[in-house]
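Appendix B, record 7
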Amino acid sequence: MLLTTAYCPPLSWFALAARDFTLSGDRVIPSEVVLEARENYRKQSYRTRCRIAAAGGVETLSVPIVHEAPKMPILSVKIDYSTPWLIRSQRAIDSAYRTSAWFDYYRDSLYEVMESGEESLFEYNLSLIKYFLSKTGIACNIRLSEDFETDAPDDFRYSIDPKKPDTVLRDLGMEKPYFQVFSGKYGFRENLSVMDLLFNEGPDSLSWLKAL
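Structure tokens (predicted):
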């Protein structure tokens, strides 16, 4: 399965990553994900943004990057630490999830990853992806693409985009709610960052992702 990098990815990304993961009483079969490492950076995408459920509605958090050229290979994109974006993001996360059931349990370990100071956007995202895979209980082998493929099988690189309809959860039969802090005010908000599921459902996140 071919996916792009993403910052605290949406649930559609994680649903795909979990799709082929098999867990039974006597064995675990990991899913296999190839991360697109040969593309050029695409702005206004999940590569640098994620969506959370805040008190005022859905809020977008973003990672600023250093714009060194009109076209930048994704592996060369650097994070811009000249503004306090990380502090602002963490304050937004605190405000949105401090009353959720599992926030205190995961907060410090998540923020440790977020505060790594990693220069590379790709490596920063990869660290967060591995964190969420571990905490949700998804066994997944990740490798990087060696070439840019134009006709790859099982290609979901352009299926998950904040600027166009995302049908992944519907296609997988996973359009289903879970508890959200502000659902009484706004109703259920679909396809937010995986952190929304983790903070609200904790260890039960895997049951939601795999219908266990």
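Remarks on this record: The radius of gyration is 17 Å. The chain has one domain: 2-210.
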